[in-house]
């Protein structure tokens, strides 16, 4: 919301308070000033004020109020005029092309001089002929043979608005010779209004805050009206169908308005506040809304009388019938639904309540008598209607935050006050007021202990009372309790304990958050439970990082076709259920991922061009529909690796490409670090090479699958080297973490016996089976088994392979003899012969 | 020939020959020739029995002297040669120490994880235990129980992703959580269920991924991490909130970090505040990072709204609490002057490897 500081001054004395100090006070008290636009007033000298500032300051010596006494035609140009101008010091001849002076051309001395904003040579203003705001310094020049060294300014040139159609014509009472900055220098505060500050969507509301925050008096607006003619009673009546949607509806009548432009100062304030001046009647409704916070609507009364066949005008509020149509004053015919509320007369809809008026009954150039509406609407309903029709407006901005019904009368009276002044209209006596549902303004009891308990500050009840009264709460002391009555301007104070909390905020704001001391928690500590599940997850991350892998974090959102890249092209899409978004930001982010691996492979692909070697992992949730409202969110671990085992360097050639066993080594190291004993078994999986894929098993439980991507799957990704990938069920993995630690073997002090053996077995025999049998045969004295060579050759015969192991024998309590070693060895070989038909290779 | 003269010649020959020895091999040859079993001086010893008896002690004594002298000379020569060889080797092996070293592959945590951990470890030392909860949430937990009823203006502040699910009352009941606050309700309910009449105090940190319906640009993302803190107890005040959060940011950004609390609005806290810290880039002087203000918006906070306490199973007349929330990625961006939030989930290694 844009608030001109000059307007605030109508209601609170700001003397001694700079614009920046004012902005700071509002910001600290919960009305953040997002920008200060200076429109004439001097910009702050230094940068350290903490606000975004923009705008133009007007040099008091160079930009002043002047008067044009006569307008002459230009001797050489039809589209230019010459003005005889007095700037309070002397007369000048000033050249301008402003079309709004043409009507005065050549009519002799003006009976009522025109007051203008006059810029002297050297003034810094915006260039009116360039788009946007381009600073320029006014220089002496000859234009079409006439010497020009000064000018009369448009709003654009002074940074008031984009208006450059003509020059500013100030109000007649503007004092000639006065520096313009003194006459109307301003600054506009752009305020962020939070939902709990609905009462401050007006100049008066902000002024009330400023008054409360600075301890200054609030100057209440003038509401006294002179009324003449027949009263409104009997001419207009109101019927409210649904008080929940329309708690109050009021009407007043003003006759014989003379439509025309509003005074310049009104137009200027409207523009600074972001609205467009229309005419003195419509401007009065908008001005009052900005000033008081009550949106108003002006009907052409005679149109309504006409529609009523000359009789009583009956205003009816009701919800629309489905499919009912209304042409709003933006000229759009809108089809309505039954949640939309309409203001109607006996003939049909007049306006979309609280959002936008209808075209037929709006104020036009022919309007003479005006029926003025001030009403209150249900804020939720207004929000829905605004969103449904895409019709944000200044009125709906306020109604959708909640306007207190008590404001209707103030709004009506203030608007009549302005309308009568600006249009010469005559206010009819009386107001027609339908008020079926007055709100309950909560009364809250608080004590000084409440304040201490919530804010940690000890202040007296008197001080509390004073603060709240500055915000117009009515307080009554009952012993040690304060009865606090919410003023009929706000609807954000709750009942009971909620109301107490709401008042605490008001007290904290006025007391000043900066004055509340800092204390350390003295309350008792909660039961200690930790978060073992997260600790396990973090441990997995640490191990993988220690193994040289890079963690990535990807978007949860993806698309089924992105995950389908994990299958060879042409594979029929698996019928997998996804968690689907109702409102995705893009088609490729329309579901929540079911595969973590697909996400990590996307990252691998994106980085593949830039790196010789990639080893990535991600730990995170995938999302599986559960049949219930909420999906399952199991955590997974995905690993993807490709490229060189070692990066090439200045003295080493390119290393070997990573293969299945590089990834397997990572998984083995991870399991070893987690002290989980796993086994590996061949696996068939459509994503993986049929011969290079394994499942990770702990007993019977499958923990995950890994391997080299199937060549046809790799074709789906732009990666040139074999890709190793794994997806592990982290929930299963973490459930296996030993709670109290794993078994640790004592370290023997006695020397080991080392021995190598090589055995020849059938190609189909898994190495793990051989090692298992060696351990079985070796018994307790076998301390280590390490495979150091795998060999295939003609001398072994077809379908055979040789596995060479380095064995370590060791006893905890003695030195082993050669005989001991021979015995162990014999047992191992016998076991391998019996089970596998293995032959010892000499 | 006189044996003594012979010994003198042996001595002179030996030393003369040694002076020409230039390497280890020649030295070894010299040792064999001059001190070996068949060396002249050794032959003098073996001939000693043939010498006149009265001369034997003298010859023996001189022969010993010669032998010792040759041995000493040999040792000296050997040491000198070794030194020289070492010198040569050391000179030859001189490296260009400016050539790049061979680095083991170093793994890294994602910067978001790194900062999450830092936050959680500081909070952990301050007594906050980590409480994690789900990412897909019921509207009820994400909004309604947090004092954000349907069509509340605050919903506009949080553009929400809705999940396809059976509709209730024409609206979707499942959302991607827009903040970690639903975890507040889950934590409170879990704790209060353990002793409904006298629920235990709470001090938890709630980290996790949150989602907002926004276009992905340099300044906005559809997902981001958040860490919230929640304290509930019988004597928790706003001054505790100020003290706790000021302590936290002093740990996080340096002991001299100054803080500032501004009134603000959140539906689930009352009073609510925004905490700014003095810009740690410029020290409060004003720079591009703090947009010349000298202050950085770091976290939102406030006293837990009575309705939220009630919904969590804590009687607001007996219990009070405070809550706060911050964005780990935002902190990283401020600290490292990163101006594009898309780097985080873009996972370009050229970005990740700088952490």
Structure description:
- Chain A: Keywords: Aminoacyl-tRNA synthetase, ATP-binding, Cytoplasm, Ligase, Magnesium, Metal-binding, Nucleotide-binding, Protein biosynthesis, RNA-binding, tRNA-binding.
- Chain A: Mg(2+) binds at residues 492, 502, 505-506.
- Chain A: It is found in: Cytoplasm.
- The complex is a heterodimer of chains A (842) and B (355).
- Chain A has 842 residues and is α+β, with helices and mostly antiparallel strands.
- Chain A has 6 domains: 2-56 and 187-214, Phenylalanyl-tRNA Synthetase, Chain B, domain 1; 59-184, Beta Barrel (OB fold (Dihydrolipoamide Acetyltransferase, E2P)); 236-434, 3-Layer(bba) Sandwich (Phenylalanyl-tRNA Synthetase, Chain B, domain 3), CATH 3.50.40; 447-512, Phenylalanyl-tRNA Synthetase, Chain B, domain 1 (2-Layer Sandwich), CATH 3.30.56; 533-570 and 577-735, Bira Bifunctional Protein, Domain 2 (BirA Bifunctional Protein, domain 2), CATH 3.30.930; 753-840, Alpha-Beta Plaits (2-Layer Sandwich).
- Chain A is 26% helix and 26% strand.
- Chain A is built from 22 helices and 42 strands.
- In chain A, strands 30-33-34-38-37-36-35 form a 7-stranded mixed sheet, sandwiched between helices.
- In chain A, helix 6 (264-272) crosses helix 7, helix 12 (448-455) packs across helix 14 and helix 15 packs across helix 18.
- The mean pLDDT of chain A is 94.
- By secondary structure, chain B is α+β, with helices and mostly antiparallel strands.
- Chain B has 2 domains: 3-92; 111-352, BirA Bifunctional Protein, domain 2 (2-Layer Sandwich).
- Chain B is built from 13 helices and 9 strands.
- In chain B, the strands form 2 sheets. Chain B has a 7-stranded mixed sheet, sandwiched between helices.
- The mean pLDDT of chain B is 92.
């Amino acid at each position: 919301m844009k608030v001109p500081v000059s307007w605030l001054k109508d209601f609170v004395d700001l003397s001694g308070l700079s614009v920046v100090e004012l902005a700071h006070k509002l910001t600290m008290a919960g009305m953040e000033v997002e920008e200060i636009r200076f429109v004439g007033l001097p910009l702050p000298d230094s940068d350290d004020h903490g606000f975004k500032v923009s705008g133009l300051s007007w040099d008091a010596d160079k930009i002043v109020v002047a008067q044009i006494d006569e307008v002459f035609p230009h001797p050489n140009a039809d589209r230019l005029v010459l003005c005889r101008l007095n700037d309070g010091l002397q007369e000048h001849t000033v050249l301008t092309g402003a079309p709004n002076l043409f009507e005065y051309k050549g009519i002799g001395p003006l009976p009522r001089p025109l007051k203008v904003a006059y810029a002297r040579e050297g003034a810094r203003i915006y260039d009116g002929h360039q788009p946007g705001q381009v600073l320029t310094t006014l220089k002496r020049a000859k234009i079409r043979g006439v010497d020009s060294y000064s000018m009369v300014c448009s709003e654009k040139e002074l940074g008031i608005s984009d208006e450059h159609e003509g020059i500013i014509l100030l109000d007649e009472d503007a004092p000639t010779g006065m520096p313009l900055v003194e006459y109307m220098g301003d600054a506009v505060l752009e305020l962020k209004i939070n939902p709990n500050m609905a009462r401050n969507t007006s100049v008066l509301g902000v002024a009330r805050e400023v008054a409360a925050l600075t301890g200054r008096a609030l100057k209440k607006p003038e509401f006294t009206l002179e009324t003449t003619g027949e009263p409104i009673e009997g001419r207009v009546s109101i019927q409210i169908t649904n008080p929940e949607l329309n708690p109050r509806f009021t009407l007043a009548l003003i006759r014989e308005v003379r439509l025309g432009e509003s005074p310049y100062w009104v137009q200027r304030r409207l523009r600074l506040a972001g609205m467009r001046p229309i005419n003195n009647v419509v401007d009065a409704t908008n001005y009052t809304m900005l000033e008081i916070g009550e949106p108003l609507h002006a009907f052409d009364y005679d149109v309504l009388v006409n529609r009523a066949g000359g009789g009583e005008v009956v205003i009816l509020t009701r919800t629309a019938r489905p499919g009912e149509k209304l042409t709003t004053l933006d000229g759009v015919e809108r089809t309505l639904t039954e949640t939309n509320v309409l203001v109607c007369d006996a003939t049909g809809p007049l306006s979309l309540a609280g959002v936008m008026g209808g075209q037929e009954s709006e104020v036009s150039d022919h309007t003479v008598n005006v029926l003025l509406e001030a009403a209150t609407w249900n804020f939720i309903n207004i929000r829905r209607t605004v969103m449904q029709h895409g019709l944000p407006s200044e009125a709906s901005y306020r109604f959708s935050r909640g306007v207190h019904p008590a404001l209707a009368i103030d709004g009506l009276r203030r608007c009549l006050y302005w309308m009568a002044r600006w249009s010469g209209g005559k206010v009819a006596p009386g107001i027609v007021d339908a008020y079926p549902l007055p709100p309950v303004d909560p009364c809250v009891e608080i004590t000084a202990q409440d304040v201490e308990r919530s804010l940690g500050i000890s202040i007296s009840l008197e001080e509390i009372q004073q603060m709240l009264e500055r915000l117009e709460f009515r307080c009554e002391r009952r012993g040690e309790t304060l009865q606090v009555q919410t003023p009929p301007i706000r609807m954000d104070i709750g009942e009971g304990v909620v109301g107490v909390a709401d008042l605490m905020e008001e007290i904290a704001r006025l007391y000043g958050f900066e004055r509340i001391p800092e204390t350390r928690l003295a309350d008792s500590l909660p039961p200690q439970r930790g978060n073992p599940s997260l600790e396990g997850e973090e441990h997995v991350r640490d191990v993988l990082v220690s193994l040289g892998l890079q963690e990535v974090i990807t978007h949860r959102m993806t698309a089924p076709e992105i995950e389908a890249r994990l299958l060879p092209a042409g594979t029929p899409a698996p019928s997998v259920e996804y968690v689907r978004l109702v409102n995705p930001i893009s088609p490729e982010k329309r579901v929540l991922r079911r595969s973590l691996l697909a996400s990590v492979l996307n990252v691998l692909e994106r980085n593949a061009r830039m790196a010789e070697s990639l080893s990535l992992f991600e730990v995170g949730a995938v999302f599986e529909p559960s049949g219930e409202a909420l999906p399952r969110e199991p955590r997974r671990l995905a690993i993807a690796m490709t490229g060189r085992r070692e990066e090439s360097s200045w003295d080493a050639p390119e290393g070997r490409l990573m293969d299945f066993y590089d990834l397997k080594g990572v998984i083995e190291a991870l399991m070893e670090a987690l002290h989980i004993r796993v086994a590996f078994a061949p696996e068939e999986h459509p994503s993986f090479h049929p011969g290079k894929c394994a499942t990770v098993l702990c007993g019977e439980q499958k923990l995950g699958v890994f391997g080299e991507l199937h060549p046809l799957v790799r074709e789906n990704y732009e990666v040139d080297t074999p890709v190793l990938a794994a997806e592990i069920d982290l929930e299963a993995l973490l459930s296996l973490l030993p709670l109290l630690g794993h078994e640790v073997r004592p370290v023997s002090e006695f020397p080991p016996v080392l021995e190598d053996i090589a055995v020849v077995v059938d190609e189909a025999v898994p190495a793990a089976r051989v090692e298992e049998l060696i351990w079985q045969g070796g018994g307790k004295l076998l301390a280590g088994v390490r495979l150091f060579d795998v060999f295939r050759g003609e001398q072994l015969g077809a379908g055979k392979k040789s596995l060479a192991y380095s064995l370590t024998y060791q006893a905890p309590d003695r030195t082993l003899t050669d005989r001991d070693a021979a015995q162990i060895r014999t047992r191992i070989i016998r076991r391998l012969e019996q089970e596998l038909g293995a032959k010892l290779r000499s | 020939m006189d044996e003594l003269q012979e010994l003198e010649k042996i001595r002179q020959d030996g030393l003369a020959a040694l002076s020409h020895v230039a390497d280890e091999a020649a030295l070894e040859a010299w040792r064999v020739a001059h001190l070996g079993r068949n060396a002249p001086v050794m032959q003098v010893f073996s001939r000693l029995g043939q010498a006149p008896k009265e001369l034997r002690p003298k010859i023996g004594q001189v022969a010993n002297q010669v032998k010792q002298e040759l041995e000493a000379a040999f040792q000296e020569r050997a040491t000198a040669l070794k030194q020289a060889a070492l010198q040569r080797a050391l000179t030859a092996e001189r490296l260009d120490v400016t050539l790049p070293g061979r680095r083991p592959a170093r793994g890294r945590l994602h910067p978001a994880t790194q900062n999450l951990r830092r936050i959680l470890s500081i909070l952990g030392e301050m007594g906050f235990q980590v409480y994690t909860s789900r990412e897909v949430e019921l509207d009820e937990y994400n909004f309604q129980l947090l004092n954000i009823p349907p069509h509340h203006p605050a919903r506009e502040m949080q553009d929400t992703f809705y999940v396809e699910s059976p509709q209730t009352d024409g609206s979707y009941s499942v959302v991607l959580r827009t903040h970690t606050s639903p975890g507040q309700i889950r934590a409170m309910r879990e704790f209060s269920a353990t002793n409904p009449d006298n629920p235990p105090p709470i001090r938890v940190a709630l980290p996790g991924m949150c989602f907002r319906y926004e276009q992905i640009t340099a300044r906005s993302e559809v997902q981001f991490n958040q860490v919230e803190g929640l304290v509930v107890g019988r004597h928790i005040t706003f001054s505790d909130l100020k003290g706790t959060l000021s302590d936290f940011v002093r740990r996080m950004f340096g002991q001299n970090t100054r803080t500032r609390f501004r009134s603000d609005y959140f539906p689930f806290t009352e009073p609510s505040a925004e905490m700014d810290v003095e810009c740690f880039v410029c020290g409060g002087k004003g720079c591009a990072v703090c947009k010349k203000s000298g202050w950085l918006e770091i976290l939102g906070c406030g006293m837990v709204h009575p309705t939220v306490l009630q919904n969590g199973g804590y009687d607001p007349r007996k219990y009070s609490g405070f809550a706060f929330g911050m964005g780990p990625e935002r902190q990283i961006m401020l600290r490292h002057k990163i101006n594009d939030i898309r780097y985080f989930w873009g996972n370009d290694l050229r970005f990740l490897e700088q952490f």
